[in-house]
Design a protein that fits this description.
The protein has ten helices and no strands. The chain is an all-alpha fold.
Length: about 270
């Protein structure tokens, strides 16, 4: 196993714990943690670009498992066992094989892939915000062609986590378009992430392509953030925050792409 990467600066652990708490707080409320964490890590140069995907998967794995347990307990009556089982397994398989490829990619390739992934995430979030979907109605499970589409989408989404794109926004978009009730989506998103992230984290951990200090801060700080969102706050009017996140994602994607071009010019 390769040793984990060192932090690029001496970021106080309190700041990393706060970042973990804040991003997982919003993750529990449906915004997602990967995109917001990526934006902060890049803005303050806390982690090298090539180590961001691994840091996200390793750092957010434990808080995500906590979310899964909470959502299944709170929303157990809206869980369709065949649907959640098939989608979760597919997501885990996608994450395992996707990460196996990404851990060997060079810095510039990861920067460009992350830029594209962030644009895709922003697109899914914007689509959800513009669709004005009725989230109180719809099915709690899929069968037939709808289930097949959902399973294939879960495998693809799982593979994208290796690039630092979270599964919440795309899973929401796919399941809502297939007609699922929002309260049935959250357990699926959380359960999928609870397998996707550890599957990816294992491979990133073995490769050493993650920032150990940042990952520890995200993991420890993230758990209380999940509990506060789930049991204290529960729900907030977050549409304005989500549009801000969309803009931040597009800006971060642009900076990643420009960094990859600058690196290419220097190498040339």
């Amino acid at each position: 196993m390769t040793a984990p990467a060192r932090s690029t600066g001496k970021t106080p652990m309190a700041a990393l714990l706060g970042l973990g708490a804040a991003t997982n707080f919003f993750d529990t409320l449906g915004i997602g943690s990967f995109a917001t964490t990526t934006a902060v890590l890049r803005l303050f140069h806390l982690v090298e670009d090539e180590n961001i995907p691994g840091t996200l998967n390793v750092g957010h794995a434990i808080p995500t498992i906590t979310e899964c347990i909470i959502f299944i307990i709170l929303l157990g009556g809206l869980i369709d066992i065949p649907t959640i089982t098939c989608m979760v397994i597919a997501g885990g398989i996608g994450a395992w094989f996707g990460t196996g490829l990404v851990v060997n990619w060079p810095r510039r390739t990861i920067q460009r892939a992350m830029a594209v992934a962030l644009v895709v995430t922003a697109g899914f979030m914007a689509l959800r915000l513009l669709a004005s979907l009725n989230l109180e109605s719809g099915t709690i499970g899929f069968t037939g062609a709808a289930l097949a589409i959902a399973v294939l989408a879960s495998a693809l989404i799982g593979s994208l986590t290796s690039l630092g794109i979270g599964n919440y926004a795309p899973t929401m978009a796919v399941t809502f378009m297939l007609g699922m009730n929002a309260k049935a989506v959250f357990p699926i998103m959380a359960a999928s992430a609870s397998l996707i992230l550890p599957a990816a984290a294992i491979r990133f951990y073995k490769s050493g392509r993650f920032d150990k200090r940042a990952a520890v801060g995200l993991a420890i700080g993230g758990v209380p953030g999940v509990f506060i969102a789930a049991f204290v706050v529960k729900e907030l009017p977050l549409n304005a925050v989500k549009w801000i996140v969309v803009c931040v994602l597009l800006y971060t994607a642009a900076t990643l792409w420009m960094s990859s071009r600058n690196a290419a010019s220097t190498a040339g």
